[in-house]
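Example (one chain per record):
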Amino acid sequence: MSRKTYKTIETPSGSGELRKAGAHLAKVFYHLQVRQETSVGELAVGQEDRPGGLDIAGEVTVSQDEPMQAQVLKGMNSGDLLTLYLADGRRLDVYATKGDAFSDAYRIVPGGPAGFISEQQN
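Predicted structure:
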């Protein structure tokens, strides 16, 4: 019997951009955690210990110098699919939800297949 655990493999953070349907929505600061599923315990005969899928989650905060804050915040809360462009050139389709009432941060989760899209795949 085995159980699933996760190993953190990357924690990208920095300044990026959120786009909605390809149009600029906001300059943001992001902090992500990328974990990979692993199995712990006994494996059945003939079963290999292979790494599983990626689990990506994190937060974004809208830059204070972003104009028209009210429209930006409305777009963040729309429930629409957004694309986060990271400083290293990768991007990630995400959904954003408001964190607690006392924070400016939005929780983000992948909106498509788990994983980053590199700019070379355009």
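Caption: Helices lie at 69-76.
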